[in-house]
Amino acid sequence: MVKKSQGKSGEISKEIVTALLSRKLSFLLAAFFLCSLTPISEAFVIPSIHHQTRKFSSKKGNSNGWNLYSSSGSQYFAPDLRVPRHVAVICDGNSRWAKNRCLPTAVGHIIGADRFVELIEYLQADGIQYCTFFGFSTENWKRSEAEIQSIFELMEQLANRFANRFPPETSEIEIRLLGDLDDTRIPEGLRAALRGLQDANEKRRLALLQSSITSTPMTVNLAINYGGRQDILRATKLLAIAVKDGKIENPDDITEEVFASFLGTAGTPDPDMIIRTSGESRLSNFLLWNCAYSEIYIARAMWPDFNRDCWEAALAWYQQRQRRFGSREPCEERVRFNIMKKKE
């Protein structure tokens, strides 16, 4: 134990100074030792994403095999940079965002509509092939009639705005609709606007098939009046009809792939990442069949505040995930096998 010096008040003895310096030096040496063992590419991933190109080549870049691809010229990317193929978003927090600012609920939905258009541009720039937005759930009918009406009016305006922002004739974006749009509670104007978007995209797709032009557009799924359980129930009924009609005779022919073909999401791969805003950690009946191995990212930001930085943080988080799909990594399996072999 180090004793205080007997000199003036507040004076520290040489022993204390020596002890403090020794402790500080120990921390510095330990930090240096750990950094020397951990390659920078494994130590961290900088949460910033380039929006123009995402390629890696060991022939260029620095000696560690890294490449610099950035509009600002200052971002680093690991060689195993992974981009999700399908991103699904639960756009939550519009009402709370407005309430926290003493604004009408409709204002939150209006600002949220802006975020929707902006995020599509970010996703497209980052090479995302599929995205699904949860716009209105089958449970949202429990809200007040005034709020539901304002949501539908805004959706109709957004559909027309979307058509102008991403013209179906030239845009590299395809629109798909999920959910029960035959529900008569949905205004006819909204249903017509949404189906107009989908029909225009379908015409363009058929025109491209007949021509020699190759195109790989991003698919945007709009889940409106959608519920995961309802989608599964509907698929089960369609499957039962197929069995009754003799299209499926052997029960063993009913596989996961066959069942999935009856879902409203048929043809769309399962989401690699589901983003939910507002800090709430639940799925809310969203893509229940499809999310078996989705990485779920909970963003604290309310949906109207979910900007480019929030998206980049979510993508950086996803890139650090190790997706095993129920199995083990090869290196982990080898270690486990060697330990068991030694015990034998």
From TrEMBL:
<dbReference type="GO" id="GO:0005783">
    <property type="term" value="C:endoplasmic reticulum"/>
</dbReference>
<dbReference type="GO" id="GO:0016094">
    <property type="term" value="P:polyprenol biosynthetic process"/>
</dbReference>
<keyword id="KW-0808">Transferase</keyword>
<dbReference type="GO" id="GO:0045547">
    <property type="term" value="F:ditrans,polycis-polyprenyl diphosphate synthase [(2E,6E)-farnesyl diphosphate specific] activity"/>
</dbReference>
<comment type="similarity">
    <text>Belongs to the UPP synthase family.</text>
</comment>
<dbReference type="Pfam" id="PF01255">
    <property type="entry name" value="Prenyltransf"/>
</dbReference>
<dbReference type="InterPro" id="IPR018520">
    <property type="entry name" value="UPP_synth-like_CS"/>
</dbReference>
<dbReference type="InterPro" id="IPR036424">
    <property type="entry name" value="UPP_synth-like_sf"/>
</dbReference>
<protein>
    <recommendedName>
        <fullName>Alkyl transferase</fullName>
        <ecNumber>2.5.1.-</ecNumber>
    </recommendedName>
</protein>
<dbReference type="InterPro" id="IPR001441">
    <property type="entry name" value="UPP_synth-like"/>
</dbReference>
